[in-house]
């Protein structure tokens, strides 16, 4: 999201409190995910770090370092900047997180459930279905790596003289060489090491970020207990919400064990038909241990989810966190030794056993998504308040998109590697390798069709953009009634304003576009699985007897799909690396990423880390300690995603402290995005309760802002929150105040609008017990 910088237009003095000398007033600024520097936020090149570190810290201007010790009568509030951009940016290697995008998307499915009474059977079904779906993605991800390294490389290619020719890096495993590593079992064991290393890397990333993010504890609550019953309290106010150490550790153990066990299962399936005597007995023991491991994994994943009512430590789950991955490592190590044992007469040919596994995963994911849809339907019928996006079906839609990404990765990557290893030959041709399982080839074939759907959606978005732009173009005279220049409606100025409003409107069309994409993927992926099971052949061969151009189209789609997934992975890595280093790139691609990594890892432990589990406790600690020590007035000023962090932090305060804080939000997605997509946490009822607990709250937004919008609570509650939409630009043409054309700011530079200083001054007056009439929009704000 866009950064929030700029000096406020006008800095009126804050009146002293009644009865004498005023205490220090504090304005705590929180930027959006796009990030910025303390110097830009505070409009001063000399800043000092007050508390925190360079990853996330609070800064002041050098002249304000000891502001609490100085008289404050008639002075502006002391600005502080909370800079947390390094929680989500920094080293370009973090772009590798984008490879794990399916894990982040399925984790989002946990949070987009409808708002319904807690602890219901439907909610338990919803939570378990999401966690099992997340587990299936881990299994699918690692199984695809096993397919590439064990089946395609070590078994098929190394066993084919045609395929291994010219590949010096693979020749040591060649069956034709007759070397020690050329025996089938040993080749399989070597190939299995790469997926095992991938599983170890995933565990390490999750553990390292778990230590850095999920370990930030909230401040102790010293005030009286919240008067509401537990069932009436907003979930974000619960003390354990931003402290997910126990669940993430438990899921990390289960997913790591599942990744290792799927490797062992693939090896045991490959050797089962070749074992005899002692090897067969050992194999049966290993199969039994593997089955026990799968039962333990499922038990850990299904047994319990998040417990937000209290801060949970690891004491009750140490057996799962330590024994489960350790046991899986032991089983895999024994399986590798068992697989590498010499088996005279073992002649390779065809694909490895277990090619129907991926079809089974597809069916299991379909069943889980159906269960998710049923649970979401029941929850939506139980919920109250305005209808969320997609009628409460956002969870199944997001889950479908996560599954689609998983199949793009697994199917496309396996097909691309098969084509590359065999120099582009068609699988099954004389002299070529058999290639990946048929279902993966079919999944790769539907990738161009999904791309075609995306192109059609882009065309539809373009048509909507043109229509809205045309409508707004004719409304500009009413927006700037005092400016005669708007009569020249053919000017580029009018087109620029109308275009900015139209582009901002596209955000509201995103839910329908995602629903269309999810349904199209469901139909295409289901057709791919059915085609694989019915024909038993890759698309090109299955269509050989079809009339016309069908065979050529099927073969072309299969080849194009394999190339597209390679291009997609390269695009993800390059775009992600640029986004972590270039703020402008982050603004264009960062909305989904910012929303996805805001939420704790409740379903998938290998998802990118949740920055809010560090940022929210930081803000809560600062507000608690500052108000307790200095007894002053505090305005929490949040822009864009910073407003979401601000609201989440205020919910974590004691009610007595919460009533002493004023909130100023601008460019805020609290209702427009979070309220619609996450109604159980940012719905109208939750935001209404927050408004009642706060001293006061004001919100600024623009029609040209693609992210921010009004808070717009139901039933007239909070009508004093939203200031009427700010005009952007502040004036149409040149004026004495703006002799040069005013910029169209969109999502940025809210403090440059005169309304910003007016609202901040009013909030401070309200905190001081002064005038309580909200600031009215001036001429520049419209």
Automatic annotation (TrEMBL):
Q: Which domain of life is it from?
A: Bacteria
Q: What is this protein called?
A: Integral membrane protein
Q: Which residues form the signal peptide?
A: none
Keyword Membrane, does the record have it? yes
Q: Any stretches that span the bilayer, and where are they?
A: 125-146, 188-205, 253-273, 279-302, 323-341, 357-378, 390-409, 446-466, 513-536, 548-573
Which species expresses this protein natively?
Streptomyces coryli
Which UniProt key words apply to this protein?
Answer: Membrane, Transmembrane, Transmembrane helix
Q: Where is this region: Disordered?
A: 213-232
* InterPro entries, sorted: AB_hydrolase_fold
């Amino acid at each position: 999201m866009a950064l929030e910088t700029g000096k406020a237009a006008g800095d009126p003095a804050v009146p002293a409190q009644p009865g004498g000398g005023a205490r220090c007033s504090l304005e705590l600024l929180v930027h959006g995910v796009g990030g910025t520097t303390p110097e830009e936020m505070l409009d001063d090149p000399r800043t000092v770090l007050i508390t925190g570190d360079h990853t996330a810290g609070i800064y002041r201007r050098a002249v304000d370092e000891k502001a609490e010790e100085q008289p404050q009568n008639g002075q502006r509030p002391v600005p502080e900047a909370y800079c947390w951009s390094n929680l989500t940016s920094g080293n370009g290697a973090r772009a590798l997180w984008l490879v794990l995008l399916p894990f982040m998307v399925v984790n989002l499915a946990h949070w987009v459930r409808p708002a319904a009474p807690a602890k219901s059977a439907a909610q338990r079904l919803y939570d378990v279905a999401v966690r099992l779906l997340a587990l299936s993605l881990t299994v699918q991800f690692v199984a695809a790596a096993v397919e590439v390294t064990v089946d395609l490389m070590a078994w098929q290619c190394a066993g084919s003289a045609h395929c291994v020719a010219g590949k010096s890096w693979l020749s040591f495993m060649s069956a034709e060489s007759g070397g020690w590593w050329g025996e089938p079992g040993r080749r399989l064991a070597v190939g299995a090491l790469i997926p095992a290393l991938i599983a170890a890397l995933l565990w390490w990333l999750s553990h390292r970020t778990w230590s850095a993010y999920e370990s930030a504890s909230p401040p102790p609550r010293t005030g009286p207990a919240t008067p509401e019953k537990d069932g009436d309290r907003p979930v974000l106010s619960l003390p354990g919400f931003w402290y997910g150490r126990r669940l993430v550790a438990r899921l990390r153990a289960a997913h790591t064990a599942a990744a290792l066990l799927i490797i062992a299962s693939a090896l045991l399936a490959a050797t089962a038909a070749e074992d005899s005597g002692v090897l067969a007995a050992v194999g049966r023991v290993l199969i039994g241990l593997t089955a026990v491991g799968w039962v333990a994994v499922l038990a850990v994943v299904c047994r319990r989810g998040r417990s937000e009512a209290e801060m949970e430590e690891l004491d009750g789950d140490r057996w799962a966190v330590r024994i489960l991955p350790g046991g899986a490592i032991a089983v895999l190590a024994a399986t590798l030794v068992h697989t590498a044992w010499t088996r005279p007469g073992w002649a390779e040919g065809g694909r490895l056993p277990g090619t129907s596994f991926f079809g089974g995963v597809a069916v299991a994911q379909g069943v889980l998504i159906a269960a998710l849809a049923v649970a979401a339907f029941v929850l939506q019928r139980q919920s109250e308040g305005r209808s969320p996006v997609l009628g409460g079906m956002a969870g199944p839609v997001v889950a479908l998109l996560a599954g689609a990404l998983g199949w793009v990765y697994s199917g496309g990557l396996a097909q691309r590697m098969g084509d590359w290893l065999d120099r582009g030959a068609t699988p099954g041709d004389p002299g070529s390798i058999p290639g990946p399982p048929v279902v993966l080839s079919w999944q790769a074939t539907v990738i161009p069709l999904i791309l075609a759907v995306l192109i059609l959606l882009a065309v539809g978005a373009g048509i909507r953009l043109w229509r809205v732009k045309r409508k707004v173009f004719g409304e500009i005279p009413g927006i700037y009634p005092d400016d005669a220049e708007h009569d020249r409606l053919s000017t580029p100025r009018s087109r620029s304003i109308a275009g900015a409003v139209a582009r901002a409107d596209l955000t509201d069309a995103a839910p329908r576009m995602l629903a269309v994409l999810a349904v199209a993927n469901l139909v295409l992926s289901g057709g791919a699985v059915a085609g694989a099971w019915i024909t038993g052949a890759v698309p090109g061969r299955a269509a050989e007897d079809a009339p016309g151009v069908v065979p050529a189209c099927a073969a072309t789609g299969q080849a194009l799909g394999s190339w597209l997934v390679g291009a997609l992975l390269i695009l993800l890595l390059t775009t992600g690396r640029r986004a972590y280093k270039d703020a402008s790139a982050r603004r264009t691609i960062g909305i989904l990423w910012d929303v996805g990594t805001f939420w704790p890892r409740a379903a998938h432990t290998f998802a990118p880390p949740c920055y809010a589990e560090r940022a929210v406790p930081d803000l809560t600690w600062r507000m608690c300690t500052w108000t307790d020590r200095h007894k002053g007035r505090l305005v929490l000023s949040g822009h864009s995603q910073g407003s979401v962090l601000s609201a989440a932090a205020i919910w974590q305060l004691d009610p007595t402290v919460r009533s002493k804080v004023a909130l100023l939000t601008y460019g805020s997605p609290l209702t427009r995005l979070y309220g619609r997509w996450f109604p159980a946490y940012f719905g109208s009822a939750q935001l209404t309760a927050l408004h009642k607990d706060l001293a006061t709250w004001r919100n600024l937004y623009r029609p040209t802002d693609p992210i921010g919008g009004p808070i717009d609570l139901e039933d007239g509650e909070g009508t004093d929150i939203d200031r009427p939409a700010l005009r952007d630009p502040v004036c149409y043409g040149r004026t004495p105040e703006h002799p040069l054309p005013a910029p169209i700011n969109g999502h940025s530079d809210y403090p440059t609008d005169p309304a910003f200083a007016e609202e901040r001054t009013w909030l401070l007056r309200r905190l001081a017990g002064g005038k309580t009439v909200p600031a009215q929009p001036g001429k520049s704000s419209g």
